[in-house]
């Protein structure tokens, strides 16, 4: 069921660092298959990863 008001929070979850890394890598690998509407979620997730790693770590992580 889709909500008309996109600002309503329907789920709150605290991801572990390991979960964030796994999810970010998975979404990067599947980025061409992601349904429309997940762009903000993916961008926020990647920003979180980037902010916790050096440039070299990010390069190794996504390679």
Secondary structure tally, helices: 3
Low-pLDDT sequence parts: none
The biggest sheet amounts to: none
Termini separation comes to 36 Å
Helix-strand makeup class:
mainly alpha
Report the mean per-residue pLDDT as an integer.
84
Approximately how much helix is present in the residues?
Answer: 40-55%
List the helices and strands and how they pair.
Blueprint: H1 17-29, H2 39-51, H3 55-62
Helix pairs in contact: 1-2
What attributes does this structure have?
single chain; 63 residues; mainly alpha; 54% helix; globular
Describe this structure as you would to a colleague.
The protein is an all-alpha fold and 63 residues long. The chain is 54% helix and 0% strand. It is built from 3 helices and no strands. It is globular and about 40 Å long. The termini are far apart.
């Amino acid at each position: 069921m889709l909500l008309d008001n996109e600002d309503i929070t329907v789920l709150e979850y605290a991801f572990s660092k390991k979960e964030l890394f796994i999810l970010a890598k998975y979404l990067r690998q599947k980025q061409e298959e992601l349904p429309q509407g997940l762009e903000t979620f993916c961008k926020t997730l990647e920003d979180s990863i980037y902010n916790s790693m050096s440039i070299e770590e990010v390069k190794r992580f996504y390679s």
